[in-house]
Amino acid sequence: MKKSAIILILALLVSTCLVGSVSAQDQITLTLWDIRTASDQVTPALKYAIERFESDYPQVKIDHVPTQNDNYKTKLRTAMSADNAPDIFMTWGSTGLKRYVEANKVYDLTSAIESGWRDNFMPAAMDLGTFSDHVYGVPVTNVAPAYIWYRTDLFEKYGISLPKTYADLKEVVAEFVENGITPFALANKNKWTGSMYYMYLVDRIGGSDALQKAINRTGAFNDQVFVEAGEKIQELVKMGAFPDGVNGLDEDAAQSRMLLYTDRAAMYLMGSWAYGTIKNENADILTKIDFMNFPAVESGQGDPSNLVGTPGDNYYSISAKSEHKEMAVEFLKYLTDEKMGESLIAVGNIPPFQGVGNKIDDPIMKKNYQTVQAAHYIQLWYDQSLPLELSQVHLNTTQALFSLEITPQAAADKMEAAAQEYYGN
Amino acid sequence: MKTNNLLSNKYFVAALFLVPALFFALVYLIIPIPLSAYYSLFKWDGIGAMKFLGIDNWAQLFSDTVFWKSVINNFKLVAISLIIQIPIALFLAVLLTRQIKGINFFKTIFFIPMLLSSIAVAFLWRYMYDPTFGLINGILNLVGLGHLTQSWLGDSSIAFYAAAAPIQWRFIPLYMIIFMAAISGIPEQLYEAAEIDGANNWQIFFFVTLPMLRGTVINASVLIIVGSLKYFAMIYALTGGGPNHASELMATYLYTKSFTEMNMGYGSTVSVALFLIALIVSVLFLRFNKKDIRN
Amino acid sequence: MIIKKIKAALIYLFLLIWLIITGYPMIFLVQNSFKIKMEFFQKPVWSLPASFTIKNYLDVINSGFYIYFFNSIIVCFISVFLIIIVSSLASYAIARIDFKFNKIIYILFLAGMMIPIHSTLIPIYKITLSLGIYDRLSALIGPYVAFSLPISVFILTGFINDIPYELEEAAIIDGANRIRIFKDIILPLVKPAISTVAIYNLTLLWNSFAYALVLTSSPTKRILTLGLFEFQGQHGIDIPLTLTALFLSVLPLIILYVFLQEHIIKGMTAGALKG
């Protein structure tokens, strides 16, 4: 009696286990993979787009599969490797997407784009999804340059004025340190966070073409500008500009922002999404938050209006294997339409779409938008503009700069050695 | 009749008994290793075309300082885990098998770390270690040992040890419970005889309990050795192998190479090396302890 | 007498210290699960919640958590059940039937322990696809069983080796076949080792992560450990909510353990992992 009951239960369990997802006939299911988990700031906007699409196309169901950032990359790469990508997937554009394009895994969106859709987008944002004049991914989220976010009240309290130049910045750092406040909230376990300082310093010292020269090999990654950027980082480190054990703190676990929220740190160099993140995590503090551009370096060649960041954070693409490409294109149009633009603005994003400027009411977001418009040049994050082989070396050496475990010269030489190996010269 | 004949044929019976296990092992365990060995001969990002390299990846491995650092870290982890987990687990097991008031409560709480997932443990310890908000520095400051506060996970010289601590924390309960079971299995008469001989607690432990647990300790050591050589989860979650590779392990290195840097060929090389190292070490350990099957 | 009391006091002191070391993180988990998001960021992390809110619990439960929970139970229990059967059969053959390849097969299984999980992700993904079970819970059972086999065989073989051979000899003389001997004599004797195998594998599988990440996709096929990441966005995290999910995911195991503790220890007694 008891035994047969156990067997029955097991059989039931096994059968639930073997059943796959059953879908009704004629019903189309589009699988969508991205990183819009329950706590992601963009999720409400995405959900709303799915809702609108599904009510307009009742025969189509969007099977939305969100996976957290790092896990998402592993999941997507594994699926791509076995040629089993979902109908629609998300990338960060640029070199990451390019790899999938080169392996013929991505559907060419060019003809759809050229039939009027292109007018939706800010032109600069299209570049990261375009390879040899063919479009493979459309930008959906945030135009996101990195700014120095700062606590206005702390600057006021200690009578410190905003730095215009690197020399000013050093003074600001010294004053905050004197008052027992960590100048910059930074969590650099993640490496890309510290990389922002390096990228800005390179831009301010050597101008917007310093990196380009190194990439096209008319310059080198151990040119003076790169060494100097490393020296300045270490100068700031030695002054105490960053939290203790900065390389052990995790940005994803909010260990940087916790310093900002608790009045322990005054500034936070981070992508413009920080505004949405702060709004989401600790709205009370929002009135005491503002941002400024990274200061100029005296005698440097960089234009201080230049920004480092991305013209579109997340790109959505369609798999070359999808059986419902046209339907998927239709869905992508819902992801990039006016209503999506509005709901993205509502969650604190500047969508990479045309004509969003006059829809933004929030003063900080408006300032953000205008700053982007005023920028002469936006340098894409190094970890996306460099090939993977080099971007990892960049991230690792920059992290080591922050812990003073490598000299600026050695870091630059290491980067150059990797570049020579990669470019073969 | 016929089945009975077959069933008395030991080869047939052995095959019958082994087939299910071999099926799972073959499909999921055995295939990946030669496959990894094969990938290790190529330059491959896991997605695009594969380019044959011959032994280049292997040559690179031998001169790769980060890899060797990770090997050393793995062996450090083996040593730390053996030295910390086994004695503490033994000590706890001995205490918990005595008649002490409230013992069940202790037993339950002591086992909890084992029930938490590595992800959860890493998540918790990250906040314990936070230099500013964390409990550990907080306590040090509170008791006037402020000079001992550290940036636990951020300092290359201690990050590895800091990240290794929660591993000990999580796995001690497992060995504790295994030892408890083994201790309860020791015949009462042995203890009685020892007591009649006037042995004190320490003598009983060293001359009765410990020798009786020899096999259990050896087996637990094998689990610890193998587990430490292929350890991944909490180190990856806490430090990602950093800073500056200070806490890199073979498994975190192969993961970073394969999935972050998309160098599947080299990642596979590291994974085959890990496999060989772990195999050699365990076989040597078992040999050394003459704990072999059919001895 | 005094010495004895001091001794007892020392023992309690040690137990108490260890209690704090093992128990505090749970307290941390629980106390912060009652906080609201803002509070976590504004107050020291070890402060008590200003007002207890159960909102986090409701949010976690409403996020499909119970489906993940149910999935985890199904997969883990079926896997552990299969592991017990498969590994005890194999261990018996290795320990007791002299078929010439015992040592090789044993070493083969031992070698299985050394395989790093992440180097198998892509091969197993491909195998799963070709078996047509991608994105089903059954896709997880194969790798779960396979990766638990080596340890289980290692434990059980050691244990069976220790069983006096005479017990079987009598049965063999009586003409019983191996299946009967296994079922009627060996299995009852290895029960303690089986409970070791069961609890060891259950705690490992309950917490396993990598295979579920790549081998399943639909939210309806998600398991608990994956669900824990639901509360980490691209650029932000809800820490109290994550802690609540962590707590809820471990709670069933704790309850199970409290109820089965005596059974487990008793079951394992008589020589778990004995050599």
Automatic annotation (TrEMBL), chain A:
| Cleavable signal peptide | 1-24
Q: Which SUPFAM superfamilies match?
A: Periplasmic binding protein-like II
InterPro entries, per database record:
Bact_solute-bd_prot1, SBP
Tell me the protein's name. Carbohydrate ABC transporter substrate-binding protein, CUT1 family
Q: Which residues form a coiled coil?
A: none
User: What is one Pfam family matched by this protein?
Assistant: SBP_bac_1
Q: Which domain of life is it from?
A: Bacteria
Instruction: Kindly indicate whether the keyword Endoplasmic reticulum belongs to this entry.
Output: no
**Species of the source:** Halanaerobium salsuginis
Keywords in UniProt for this one?
Signal
TrEMBL record, chain B:
- Where would I find the ABC transmembrane type-1 domain in this sequence? 71-285
Task: Look up and give the membrane topology term.
Answer: Multi-pass membrane protein
Instruction: Give one Pfam family.
Output: BPD_transp_1
Please name the SUPFAM superfamilies in this protein's record. Answer: MetI-like
What biological-process terms (Gene Ontology) are attached? transmembrane transport
Identify the keywords attached in UniProt to this record, alphabetized. Cell membrane, Membrane, Transmembrane, Transmembrane helix, Transport
Gene3D superfamilies linked to this entry: MetI-like
Task: Please list every transmembrane segment annotated in the UniProt record, as residue ranges.
Answer: 12-31, 77-96, 108-128, 158-183, 204-226, 264-286
Cellular compartments annotated: Cell membrane
**One of the record's GO cellular component terms:** plasma membrane
Which family is it part of? Answer: Belongs to the binding-protein-dependent transport system permease family.
Name the record gives this protein: Raffinose/stachyose/melibiose transport system permease protein
Species for this entry: Halanaerobium salsuginis
UniProtKB/TrEMBL annotation, chain C:
Keywords in UniProt for this one? Answer: Cell membrane, Membrane, Transmembrane, Transmembrane helix, Transport
Cellular component terms (Gene Ontology): plasma membrane
Please list the residue ranges annotated as the ABC transmembrane type-1 domain: 69-259
- Cross-referenced InterPro entries, in alphabetical order? MetI-like, MetI-like_sf
Principal localisation = membrane
Residue ranges crossing the lipid bilayer per the database entry = 9-30, 65-92, 104-125, 137-160, 239-260
Localisation: Cell membrane
Query: What is this entry's stated membrane topology?
Result: Multi-pass membrane protein
Give a yes or no for keyword Acetylation in this entry.
no
Q: Name one Pfam family in it.
A: BPD_transp_1
- Tell me where on the tree of life, at the top rank, the source sits: Bacteria
Name the GO terms of the biological process aspect. Answer: transmembrane transport
- Family statement: Belongs to the binding-protein-dependent transport system permease family.
Protein name, as recorded: Carbohydrate ABC transporter membrane protein 2, CUT1 family
